[in-house]
Design goal:
CATH superfamily: Decaprenyl diphosphate synthase-like
Order of helices and strands: EEHHEHEHEHHEEHE
Strand order of the largest sheet: 4-5-3-2-6-7
Bound molecules: 3-methylbut-3-enyl trihydrogen diphosphate, magnesium ion
Helix content: 40-55%
CATH architecture: 3-Layer(aba) Sandwich
Mean pLDDT: 95
Radius of gyration: 18 Å
Number of strands: 8
CATH topology: Undecaprenyl pyrophosphate synthetase
Length: 239
Amino acid sequence: MSETEPSGLTPQHVAIIMDGNGRWAASRGRPRAFGHRKGVEAVREAVRNAGELGVRYLTLFSFSTENWNRPAAEVEALFELLRRFVAADLDRLHAEGVRVRILGRREGLGEELLKLIGSVERQTAGNDRFFLNIAFNYGGRDEIIRAARLAAEAHGGDLSRVRETDFARYLDTADLPDPDLVIRTSGEHRISNFLLWQAAYAEFVFMDTLWPDFDKAAFEQALSEFASRDRRYGGVRHG
Ligand code: IPE
Ligand code: IPE
Ligand code: MG
């Protein structure tokens, strides 16, 4: 890598903290679940738009390890939406050459969902036109600690020679490039335990748009903000 690297281009990998479904619904006097359903439509649109805008990897945060703190009915609604999304969209995504992966902790997901995840990952494993990662039951700290356990197992308990690149192989994102751009919708300015390791040098774009309203124009706006950034990776300013 050169000393500095102006982004100037389309990011290869975009990760999105899809936030604001609840507020979107509340502003219409509707239950939170209504916002989540609308949020799934925005997911479909985002996948399509990412492809059209030249992004190759899209990682979407859809349920965090902290989201278990929500009322049981909302948690169930979010699980049901993932099940339905996978069931309804799998064949189309596969036909379009999309490789789908689910990032996050498997424990606590239930047998039916685990089976679905297994089948979507297997069915699309050979695809390489576009990469869709859904972070579900995902927490960055949880991922790092699971990776540390796996690394320790693989190295006989001695991590003294494990380098960053070795360690990254035990993360859920093993063979994925790091995100270039992390977008968070809904006006919150925090990372909420998303991709803590992988986002080390990502550019962040925070937008006021609520997730159900995240359309192509919003996506383009985030990409153009990214293109104006100067990625220095600890080096010096360009030009
Ligand atoms: C969606 O938005 C994010 C998920 C956890 C599914 P929220 O449900 O957090 O909506 P707000 O932040 O309450 O508006
Ligand atoms: C982050 O949104 C998690 C997802 C988008 C899945 P939250 O709404 O759960 O985050 P906080 O609680 O505002 O930090
Ligand atoms: Mg939220």
